[in-house]
Design goal:
The protein has 284 residues and is of the alpha+beta class. Helix content is 35%, strand content 18%. The chain has 7 helices and 12 strands. The termini are far apart.
Length: 284
């Protein structure tokens, strides 16, 4: 108490040197406290960021594709990291929003992703646009063109011997059901040169038992396997593929739908329970 009284008296008497000294100490302490507070705030943000990152790692990514005919949900493969990263980047940037499915062939596939389709006139020919780059092919024998496969469009082997993918154009396989005999003929055909498809030979090509079962029941486009990169699969909304594939098209204009079919995409992150509920499956 005595020290406090003396301190107050000294200030009252106007001891400017002492007062300045005390005030400078107070300012130093205030700066120190501000620095401590700032350090704590930054540390908290870093910890929270790490927590969010850890939580995101526990979630599973799906791409929601909204169309006038309904919604489709696609799962992207980790076996094609370049294609997955590129697709996620474009979707997050809103690249695909308002683009068209500009090429539709019933019994084959539905194709989109040409940026020139966003504001295209009704008679405009589409299919040549892109972001200005290609992606190296990423073939994996476990990824194949069963119905609902998400794959990349590209130029033919004559212009593109490395089979590099378009930077943005993709297609979703519809196809048809094949007999075992038809699949055997496709195997032999792909093991040799197939100039009618503008493709190079793949001597080691062959269908696995799983692929044969899929193509003979669900269907797809088996003759495109190992020639075009498959990087995902529609896991919900398969009926939407059929609805889009059945629209009226102008065959003279590259099979462009007479009435524009536009899309919107978004990334959604779900935990296992949410994903199972979305896909109408019970968690194993």
């Amino acid at each position: 108490m005595f020290h406090v009284t003396c301190f107050l008296l000294l200030l009252k008497e106007g001891n400017s040197n002492f007062s300045s000294f005390i005030l400078s100490k107070i300012r130093i302490n205030m700066r120190f406290l501000r620095n401590i507070a700032l350090f704590c705030a930054v540390s908290t943000l870093i910890q929270c960021s790490g927590l969010r990152k850890k939580q995101n790692n526990d979630l599973e990514l799906l791409v929601k594709i909204t169309t006038p005919m309904g919604d489709m949900y696609a799962e992207l493969s980790d076996k094609t990291p370049k294609h997955k990263a590129n697709f996620v980047k474009l979707v997050s940037q809103g690249f695909y929003d308002s683009l068209m499915f500009h090429r539709v062939i019933n019994g084959f596939m539905i194709q989109g992703g040409d940026p020139e389709s966003k504001n295209a006139k009704q008679d405009a020919q589409l299919g040549n646009g892109g972001p200005g780059y290609t992606i190296p092919a990423e073939f994996d024998t476990t990824l194949y063109h069963q119905k609902g496969a998400l794959a990349t469009a590209r130029l033919g082997d004559g212009q593109n011997p490395k089979k590099e993918s378009s930077g943005s154009q993709f297609y979703i396989a519809q196809g048809k059901v094949y007999s075992p005999e038809q699949l055997e003929r496709i195997e032999r055909s792909k093991q040799k040169t197939t100039p009618e498809m503008n493709m190079e030979e793949i001597p080691e090509f062959g269908f696995t038992k799983k692929q044969i079962e899929s193509y003979t029941t669900v269907g797809g486009i088996p003759f495109l396997d190992q020639s075009y990169t498959v990087f995902g699969q529609i896991v919900r909304g398969m009926e939407v593929i059929d609805k889009i594939a059945s629209v009226k098209v102008n065959k003279a204009n590259g099979n462009r739908p007479v009435k524009d079919v536009r899309m919107k995409m978004e990334l959604i992150y779900l935990n296992k329970e949410e994903k199972a509920k979305l896909l109408n499956k019970q968690e194993q």
